[in-house]
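Limitations

Structures in this collection are predictions, not experimental determinations, and the ligand pose is part of the prediction. Treat each record accordingly. The example that follows, with magnesium ion as the small molecule, is included so readers can see exactly what is and is not provided: the inputs are given verbatim, and the output is the predicted complex.
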Amino acid sequence: MFSPVEHLRIVYDENMIRTRVRELAKEIDSLYGDEPLVIVCVLKGAFLFFSDLVRALTISPELDFVRLASYGEGMKSGGTVSFTKDIELSLEGKHVLIVEDIIDSGRSMDFLLRQLSARGAKSLKIAALIDKKGRREVPVHADFVGFALPAGFIVGYGLDYAERYRALPAVYCLPGVGK
Ligand code: IMP
Ligand code: MG
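Predicted complex:
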């Protein structure tokens, strides 16, 4: 039978992801407690990480969504980032936690931090499922990191290659794709 994943190599399986997401949720619970908090999902890549993470929390944050576009499709994000969907909630006087799939060059998060920091939030932090720290082109610090990935292009659990593989429940390496 045809398997959509036979050419993929597993990097983080469902158990590893579930365990790590629970650990991150505990840290987030204890950092924010009863403080007003907005958690912002960066579409599309973070949608599964975000939905698992917010369901693992015991606190009750407000939730919102943002979508960013960067010039150039596929493997490498370009230098210019813009909103294709902005958030809708007010951030005034609230803590804000951005939930992102991967931080690579740092350009997307640098853009989003700059945009949101002008909106009166009490604090602005980032939770990233995967941090490719060695690939930064602009300095961005992730406050909560699921996994640190030194190299490779990965797909699954929300992450795509040309819009494929997002629905896979685990994270896989796409062999032959450099990065
Ligand atoms: P940055 O602006 O270079 O940090 O790009 C981050 C974005 O590039 C992520 O949100 C992903 O959408 C995409 N990206 C970077 N590395 C990968 C990868 O290995 N697999 C899938 N998408 C990736
Ligand atoms: Mg992304």
